[in-house]
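Why do we care about 3D structure at all? Because function follows from shape, and shape follows, mostly, from sequence. That is the central idea of this module. The next example makes it concrete: a single protein chain, its amino acid sequence, and then its structure expressed as C-alpha cells.
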Amino acid sequence: MNTTAPPPALEFVCSEIWGGNRPVDRAVELPGVVGRLFSKPCGGGRGGDVHYMSVCGSGLLSRTCIADVAGHGEAVAAVSHELHGLLRRYMNNLDQRRVLADLNRTLEQGETLQLATAAAFTYYPPARSLSFSYAGHPPAWVFRRSSGRWGRLSLDAADGLANMPLAVSSDTHFTRGRTRVDFGDRLLIVTDGVLEAPAPGDATLYGDERLTAFLNDHRDDGVDDVSRRLVQELIEYTGDATLRHDDVTFALLEFRRGPRGPAIWTALKNRLWPRRGNTAE
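And the structure:
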C-alpha cells in the first residue's frame, strides 16, 4: 500500500511566478481560485508545453498562461524564459494581451522560427472578472454553475491578422474577451495533446465533443477527481499508459471566494507583510 501523502497545494503569494516546462501534477491555489495543474512531456524530462501562473504585487490579480511550442530543447527553453520575463514585467497589469504581443514580437524577430500557440487568462477576485486571450490556441472550456453545463470560452470574430499563433507575423494583434464568473464556476485550459490523443488502430482523435461529454458527465465531481479521471480517460482512449503521442497539459480551475475584506486592505497587507512563496522551495 502506498502511504505517501500527496504534496501540499502550491499556494501562490504576491509577486510570485511559478512554472516552466517540467512534468507536474499538483493542486494549486491562487487568489479566489483553486485547481489542479497537470503536464506530462511525451518523452519524459522537459517537454514542449510551457505553463506559468503568477500573482500580482498586491496579492489580488492572478494570471495563468499555457503555451504549446513546436519543438523541444532550446526552442522551448527560449519561449519559457521569455514568457517568465514578460509575466514578471506585466505582473500588475490587467491586460494579458501585452504578454502575448511582446512574446510574439520577440519570437518573430528571433534567429530561429519558434512557432507556438498560447492561452492567457487574468482573474480579479473583487469583481469576479475573468479576461482571456488566445494566440492560435484551442479555446478553453467554462462550466457555469447556474446552468450546470460546460461550454467553450471563445473570442468574438476579429478583422485582420488577429489571434494567430505566435511568430507567424509581427502584424498579428490580439483581442480580449471578458466574462463574470460565479463561485463554483470552473475553467479548463488544455493543449493539443489532450484533444489530439489518438485511438489505437484508426487513430481517431479524442476531440472536442468527447471532452465536453466527459466534463458534463463529471460536473458534480471535485476538481482533483475530475483531473485524475481525465488522465485515466486519455490513457484508456489511447491504450497507452505513458501517453507518448504528445505532451499533455491541462489546468482545471474553480472559482471560490477571494480574499476577505476591502481590496485596498488586502493589497496594503500583502505589500507590508509579504509571505514566503513557492519559488523558495
